Every structure is written in C-alpha cells, then in structure tokens.
Amino acid sequence: MLAIIWHSRTGAAQAMAQAAAQGAAQAGAPAQLLLAEQINPAQCIAAQGFLFVCPENLGSMSGEMKAFFDRCYYPLLEQIEGRAYATAIAAGTAGQGAQAQIDRIVTGWRLRRVAPPCIILTGADRPDSILAPKALPHTALQKCRELGQLLASGLEMGAF
User: Fold this and answer.
1) Full-prediction pTM beyond 0.70?
2) Where are the alpha helices (DSSP H) in the chain?
C-alpha cells in the first residue's frame, strides 16, 4: 500500500495528493490518503511506500507536516528502512526548502527516493495570492497523477 501523507493550507497540496491517489487507482494499486495531522506510526508501518505532499511555507514544509515527522520519527526508526518514497511540494515560487527538509528527515529512516521531486509552482508571492485558495492547472495535476501511478505500480510489481 502506498501511503500518501499530506497537508494543505489553500487546497493546492490537497489537490496534488488527490491526483496522486487517482493515479495509483488507475494503476490498480492500493493507496491511502492520510492527513498529516491524524496519521500515527502504525499506519506508516503498514505502508510499503510513501508520498509526502505539502505546501512550502516560509521556505520550509508546513508546520502540520513537520509535526507529523516530529510525532512519528522516533517510533519509526529501524521500522521502515529501505521503503520507497517520493515528494510533491506546492510552492509559490521555490519549493526547494521544503524538499530539502523532508529529504534530510527521511534520511534518518533510511527511505529510498524512487522518483524525482515534484514541485508545483503556483506563482503566489504576495499576501493576497499566498493566502487565497488555489486551483491548479490540469498539467500540474496530471504530473501528480503520473507520480502516484509510478509509485503505486512500482510497489505492486516489487520494483521498489
């Protein structure tokens, strides 16, 4: 099972997570959307692989996604080593800060990146556009569907 662990503030990351889940379903593979604020270590242990989806806020991952890592990091040490992961970041103009932060954290879990980072830029760079609800273009959502398809099918075939 692919665990799609997500958090969203304005809808962009949520749409990305849902698109990835659609892609996994198209591949005929099980995936579960798990809200970062609610997930527990047992749910992570049950997963074969992970897709972490969140917005970049102030150059780092959202606080709720960080809280997930804070809550689950130590209970999962030596429990999920070698499992596949990928990331999808919704960002206004960059995304690399959140990306690097997640990569650093999962290094301790010894997860294996199996797909390049997926960073979707919304162009939001002013208070009104940053806080506004986001609607992503079809091309961005298609990229997320393809990522979900890749991860889920790779897990199903044992490629990861």
Assistant:
1) yes
2) 12-26, 41-46, 63-76, 96-109, 127-131, 138-157
